[in-house]
Amino acid sequence: MGRDEEIGPSLVERLTVAQRHAAAGLSRALAEDGCTLDQWRVLRTLGDGEGHLMGELAASLLIAQPTLTRVVDALTDTGAVYRRQSDRDGRRVSVHLSRQGRVRLTRLSALVQAHEEALAADPAWRRRYDGLLRPQEERAAGRGSREPA
Fold first, then answer.
1. Is the dihedral of CA 67, 69, 73, 76 positive or negative?
2. Whole-model pTM above 0.90?
């Protein structure tokens, strides 16, 4: 490949930029309600009504264990979640969503839905991320359909 040939961004790079853009806007919206993105993700996971072990939460949410501990500590301090000895293994602690946490999750879910709808309705967002998962070769060859800028 010659030096003059442009190498387009990789799929990972495109996904990373899209994720950061979407997460930044969502983080701002959640912050207005005193919540972080990681706190919302934990609440959302606990919204299934099941208790989750800390290790399972860390693995499923891709959050480092020490960070998850701080997130759960903050949620416990606000009464959104509570910890208790695991039914499966008495040596472990499971985390559960409280009634207050369920109310908060409902409110936060409405914020998230509004943010996602705004992204979907934004023509600039759609132009930039349309076909994000199309194979790199198809994009480079210009065979994919593109909206005019």
1. positive
2. no
